[in-house]
């Protein structure tokens, strides 16, 4: 089982290192003394075979904790289920790997984990339909990374097996046994979609400018080095959000400063004059690794995460800052801090930056005095953005967290989907306030959260005065088309 998990990690880490880290986490759990002792005790005391012992321990754990909603506990239970199922298979039980067959299919399931999606043959998976889950769950995000249309909250029936269906990921529609007219319509839509993609690629070298001359920069969000080619392929103006956590997750110890430096240097050289904004490590909550030893928290999404964890672990923070400043000599880099909520935090960061620069100067290491920015993702930061604007060069609004904190809704809780409204007037007012406060200080403001890719709001964002939108690379040209066809005055 351990050997197979290592193989799965290696096969998937380039696609999404953060999600592939689940395999290393499961290895540690599988090798833990407590897990092995529980199974051996069942075999010795109850005189059952090994596969049955694994199964009853799995089922008892799930039953005991199934009502708890804390993300850390839910993640641990999911890991326990998956390693137990893997062991049962190896010991002669049913296979856990989903066999998609010889031809491409739509997969319908009660629920899927990121692990199960990563284990599948990607060439055979046309679409995913799940009963349980949410649009921002890890499984959905993994499917999105693989560009697989995914629907959630669809109750399945065994009788669907083997039937023809259509999944429309644009409208969230599922057709079972579509008639000839519907099938013909979607054949036409598929061809139109292909032609639209070809037309969009003609905009790669065009400006992000409205018909009446207003500009908004369209940048890309990336989560690892393998996404760099997509940024250039889709003609993004630069990288508006580099999620640097990819270097900390899915491993067994802290990355060394030189390892960080070489990655940032490679990005800087690849992007050339195009701006790359590196967000410092946004660890904690659902982004953890065993070596970090982050204590379990009752509410980790509101806990020791983002800049709080960095200021708590200054040695880790300084190593990353030194690496970024060293790499700045090779391109056009900028720094951005996550989860800021006070001026005091910025004062502390500035003192650390000063120490880092003094250390580099003493060693004669070249660097640039790069721009710094703040992720506006707490309501506190939005409300005092007039004061924070005086301390940095730019704002980037993280709408995912800002929405859930403003609405007091856990965005990963599928039971609250009907209440989760990213178009809520309170959120849009908050965005406008941040933009206005930035401009009063002569600074720029953008959005790097999922809302930035919402094409229904693109024109409104331009009129609100946002200076940039940073989105998934594949969304850049779609938004560029909208921007180039609109007039601000209308």
Mean pLDDT: 88
Low-confidence stretches: none
What is the molecular shape?
Answer: globular
Counting helices, strands and paired strands, the structural category is alpha/beta
Largest sheet: 8 strands, parallel, barrel
What's the multimeric state? single chain
Strand portion, in percent?
A: 5-15%
Structure summary, number of beta strands: 13
Helical content band: 40-55%
Radius of gyration: 24 Å
Topology diagram in text:
Blueprint: H1 2-12, H2 17-30, H3 33-46, H4 50-65, H5 71-90, E1 105-109, H6 114-119, E2 125-130, H7 138-145, E3 150-151, E4 165-168, E5 173-176, H8 180-200, E6 217-222, H9 228-233, E7 239-243, H10 257-271, E8 276-279, H11 307-312, H12 314-327, E9 333-337, H13 343-362, E10 371-376, H14 379-383, H15 385-388, E11 394-397, H16 399-407, H17 425-440, E12 444-447, H18 458-464, E13 468-471, H19 476-484
Parallel strand pairs: 1-2, 2-3, 6-7, 6-13, 7-8, 8-9, 9-10, 10-11, 11-12, 12-13
Antiparallel strand pairs: 4-5
Helix pairs in contact: 1-2, 2-5, 3-4, 4-5, 10-12, 12-13
General description of the model:
This protein is an alpha/beta fold and about 500 residues long. It has 19 helices and 13 strands. Helix 2 (about 15-30) packs across helix 5, helix 3 crosses helix 4 and helix 4 packs antiparallel against helix 5 (about 70-90). The longest helix has 21 residues, at about 180-200. The radius of gyration is 24 Å and the shape is globular. It starts with a helix and ends in a 6-residue tail after the last helix. The model has no long low-confidence stretch (mean pLDDT about 90).
């Amino acid at each position: 089982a351990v050997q197979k998990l290592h193989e799965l990690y290696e096969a998937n880490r380039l696609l999404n290192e953060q999600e592939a880290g689940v395999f290393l986490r499961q290895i540690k759990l599988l090798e833990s003394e407590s897990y092995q002792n529980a199974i051996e005790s069942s075999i010795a005391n109850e005189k059952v075979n090994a596969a049955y012992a694994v199964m009853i321990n799995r089922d008892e754990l799930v039953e005991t904790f199934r009502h708890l909603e804390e993300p850390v506990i839910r993640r641990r239970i999911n890991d326990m289920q998956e390693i137990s199922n893997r062991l049962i298979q190896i010991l002669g039980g049913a296979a856990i790997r989903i066999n998609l067959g010889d031809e491409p299919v739509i997969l319908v399931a009660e629920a899927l984990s990121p692990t199960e999606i990563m284990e599948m043959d990607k060439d055979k998976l046309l679409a995913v339909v799940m009963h349980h889950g949410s649009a921002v769950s890890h499984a959905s995000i993994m499917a999105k990374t693989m560009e697989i249309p995914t629907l959630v909250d669809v109750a399945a029936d065994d009788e669907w097996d083997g039937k023809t269906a259509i999944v429309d990921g644009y409208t969230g529609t599922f057709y079972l046994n579509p008639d000839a007219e519907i099938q013909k319509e979607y054949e036409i839509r598929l061809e139109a979609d292909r032609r639209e993609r070809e037309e969009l690629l003609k905009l790669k070298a065009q400006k992000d400018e409205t018909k009446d001359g207003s500009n908004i920069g369209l940048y890309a969000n990336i989560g690892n080095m393998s996404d760099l080619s997509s940024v250039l392929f889709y003609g993004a103006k630069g990288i508006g959000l580099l999620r640097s956590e990819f270097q900390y997750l899915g491993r067994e110890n802290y990355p060394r400063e030189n390892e960080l430096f070489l990655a940032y240097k490679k990005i800087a050289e690849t992007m050339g004059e195009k701006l790359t904004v590196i967000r410092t490590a946004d660890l904690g909550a659902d982004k953890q690794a065993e070596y970090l030893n982050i204590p379990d928290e009752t509410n980790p999404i509101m806990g020791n995460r983002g800049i709080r964890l960095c200021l708590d672990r200054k040695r880790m923070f300084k190593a990353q800052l030194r690496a970024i400043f060293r790499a700045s000599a090779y391109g056009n880099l900028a720094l951005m801090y996550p989860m800021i909520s006070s001026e005091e935090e910025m004062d502390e960061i500035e003192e650390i930056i000063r120490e880092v620069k003094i250390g580099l100067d003493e060693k004669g290491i070249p660097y640039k005095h790069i721009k710094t920015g703040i992720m506006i993702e707490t309501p506190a930061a939005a409300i005092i953005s007039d004061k924070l604007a005086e301390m940095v060069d730019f704002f980037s609004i993280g709408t995912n967290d800002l929405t859930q904190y403003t609405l007091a809704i856990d965005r990963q809780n599928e039971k609250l989907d009907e209440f989760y409204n990213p178009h809520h007037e309170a959120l849009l007012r908050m965005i406008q306030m941040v933009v206005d406060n930035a401009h009063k200080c002569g600074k720029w403001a953008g959005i790097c959260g999922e809302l930035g890719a919402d094409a229904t709001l693109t024109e409104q964002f331009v009129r609100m005065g946002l200076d940039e939108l940073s989105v998934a690379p594949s969304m850049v040209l779609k938004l560029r088309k909208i921007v180039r066809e609109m007039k601000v005055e209308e």
